[in-house]
Amino acid sequence: MSFERLGSLDAYLETLDRATRSALAKAAADPSVLTYQAGIQLSSEPDSISTREGLFALAAAAVMGGEPGKALPVATMSALWWTGMRFSILDATRLAQHHLQKTLAPADRKLLWANDVSDCAISAGRAARSMSRRHFTEISRQNVLSDLMGSFGAAYSRDAVMTARLFAPQAIEHWRRYGLFHGLLRKLTLDEKSSTVVDTSAAELIVPDLLVAHAFAHVRPPIRVALARLRAGVVLNRDLQGALRGHLRSPVITRAYHADLRSMHRRACLMLADIDPGTQFGHVLRSELDLVVLNAGAADGRGAAER
Length: 307
Fold this sequence. Notes:
Elements lengths: L9 H19 L7 H9 L10 H9 L8 H13 L4 H14 L4 H27 L7 H27 L4 H23 L14 H8 L4 H11 L6 H11 L2 H25 L4 H27 L1
Helix pairs in contact: 1-4, 3-4, 3-7, 3-13, 4-5, 5-6, 6-7, 7-8, 8-12, 8-13, 9-10, 9-12, 12-13
């Protein structure tokens, strides 16, 4: 069971959507919150909100033994953050902080929450700067994982900590570490789902960053240059895309990449086992972690069928 089939948490989906839309409307009414581009686009596309990632806080609250509805301010903040991230870190931060300012909660908790959001924004900004300044020859597993943890990982870690401040203050550091890995695996899962490496009919070659990093460790310099150009958004011709697919689907590269995914999956599962006493929603979180290896397994099957 994944976040798309949350069982008793389904009752909160509509509530979360309403809360996010209400908070977004309040933010849009304040010209100091959103940048011009974000304000214009969100006003013209009122349905372009991102509530999906906010569900993590609700499931985490249930695992901690709390009432998921009481974590709604955190879930709403997270949904606003990811909505803002479609434009910039600044928009994401302003939306999240504006919501927290309007939230009814003790002042000391709101201050801690505000600091959690600021720390996440700093981490995301640092990751973005590292990616933009890094030379194309510096693509490595370590750098890619650092970037993903600094962005997706930091956001999920923030949500875990903010929720733990409500229900499990004695376990904040455990949840901080778990959230970091949950966010990392969430991003790796999204990258796997959007990958077209084994889909030879796709017009565009989309390659997970971690797979590019593993490929860099094995391919010749000209192929590295082509992969770096692709990663930078350069449109490559079909022949070159086909050649890259051949390299990316080679057994030595795919084995290393999928072994890496499985290793990180095992580590995250062990972290979850340390903080979950065996709750229903612990299984929900576990199912989210499992998606990364399920997607990798499906890709293995498609690739083998085409070879």
